[in-house]
Amino acid sequence: MSSSVSSIESTTADSGETSAAFKQRFMRRLIAVLIGGMFLDGYILGIIGPVTQKMTDDLGLSTLWVGLIAAAPLFGIFIGSPLGGWATDKFGRKPLFLVDIALFVIASFMQSFAGLVQFFVDSAWQLFFVRLLMGVAIGGEYSIGGPLMSEFAPARLRGRLLGMTLIAWYAGFMFAFIVGHVLVATTDLSWRLILGSSTVIAVALFIARLGLPESPRWLWNQGRRDEARTIAHRYMESASDMTDVEHEDIRKGSFGMLFSRQYWRATLFTSGFWFCAVTPYFAIATFADSVLQQYGLSGGLAGGVGLSALALLAVVITVLLIDKAGRRVLTVPPQWLCAALLAVIGLWAGAPPTVVLILFLAFSFFNAMYTTLTQIFPAEVFPTEIRGIGTGFSAAVSRIGAGLGTFLLPWSMTNLGTSTTMLIAAGVAAVGAGLSQWLAPETKGKSLSETAAGYSH
Fold first, then answer.
1. Percent of the chain at pLDDT above 70?
2. Which end of the chain is more exposed for a tag (fewer CB within 10 A), N or C?
């Protein structure tokens, strides 16, 4: 190590800025800023369900437009995720996280503007466009935040810390569902104002996301070794993780590497697994009211919140277990179980409503368990030079599934019937289970150098 770098490290050590307490405060801050973005994502996607009926009545929407408007943020995320991933691999985690902060600021103003515009929205395509922009503003979060967290987190806690961001997503989704239902049931507020309530959260995020350092792994990958060592020494807790930074290759990444002989399996697994995990959940959870009503249940706040609350509990349990039990045991068996639960719902046409509700709640619980891994695997199995674009591509593919599920479910329930719709959902879950059975790696406790090399041998 150069004398200048040693001098810098000595200075920071003397000032207490390399202490364990300092590093723990940094990690808590990093978790907090990532949680904020995921909470906002869940909120924007969850708030549409409770106002769907009022919105449909007011604008005279067809089932086609209802699905499109609900899915619009997902299509927006589809655009933002790969762009953010490409940029974060090319220009670095820190500048793109700063750009992402700026985008959130712009998005918050746009969403504030959108909240005002929504007072005057008088057509389906205008509302679709406003919510599409909201999704674009969030898209970069997946492909920037996950890699940044994985590159700072200690290997022994990496799964838990990455999984915690999904707790915020489910909490945001559930909170939006509750807020939306309460406002619809107890006030005369316009559905436009209820949709625009996400602006408050977006503005609050601006304050919380400033001044994070560059990833030492990205710096080493760029050949900036002295800077990488200095930042690793200052912010990383584990000596072995600091040493592992120096195992990074110095090479440029490209989109084509995702489909190379070395990494095509990682790309296939992360994108396919994520697609199959979220497609049934988004469809069922977004329209929980109408789905439950089709089975003779009252739906409403209790049913929708029940689905989300159990999902949130499952994520919490998974986060607590992930670094002890391992990845595969929390990935493969729950997927097969969810496929079976949906198949039973589809095949048992005369099932008592209470049994159907229990099956839906069980599906929501176990689906959330393995969905937690969608925040972990992409950040672990791709190397530093394509970690951003790999995560972004997988997120984009997943949003195709989430968007299609949300878009097609109202049409499918009306035209194909509930049984056929649930059997299709069961088939999607089964495909994901088979893919994971084949390709899901075990990355528990391994360094990022080891996890990224897992598919190349």
1. 84
2. C
In this predicted structure, the answer to whether residue 344 has a pLDDT above a threshold of 80 is yes
Quick check: 106 and 99 in contact, CB under 8 A? no
The letter for the amino acid at 47 is I
Q: At residue 7, what is the residue type?
A: S
Could you tell me if 409 and 292 are in contact, meaning their C-beta atoms sit under 8 angstroms apart? no
How many angstroms separate the Cα of 397 from the Cα of each of 39, 78, 110, 274, 451? 21, 7, 26, 8, 22
CA 312 – CA 291 distance, rounded (Å): 20
Question: What DSSP designation does 282 have?
Answer: H
Of residues 419, 434, 415, 279, the one with CA closest to residue 342: 419
- In angstroms, the CA 32 to CA 449 distance is 26
The DSSP 8-state label assigned to residue 382 in this structure reads: S
Spans of all domains in the chain? 11-456
Q: How far apart are CA 289 and CA 295, in angstroms?
A: 10
Q: What is the pLDDT of residues 224-275, one digit of tens each?
A: 888 888 888 888 877 777 777 877 776 787 889 999 988 999 999 999 999 9
| Architecture of the 11-456 domain | Up-down Bundle (1.20)
Instruction: For residues 322-339, give the mean pLDDT.
Output: 94
Question: Are 397 and 270 spatial neighbours (Cβ–Cβ below 8 Å)?
Answer: no
Kindly report the backbone phi and psi dihedral angles of residue 298, in degrees, each rounded to the nearest multiple of 5, phi listed first. -70, -20
Confidence (pLDDT) at 435: 96
The answer for residues whose C-beta is within 8 angstroms of residue 429's C-beta and 6 or more apart is 276, 280, 335, 338, 339, 342, 367
- Tokens linked to 7: 């001098």
Going by the DSSP 8-state scheme, the letter that residue 444 receives in this structure is T
From CA 360, how far away is CA 357, in angstroms rounded? Answer: 5
- Note the pLDDT tens digit of each residue in 413-457: 777 877 888 888 899 999 999 999 999 999 888 888 888 776 655
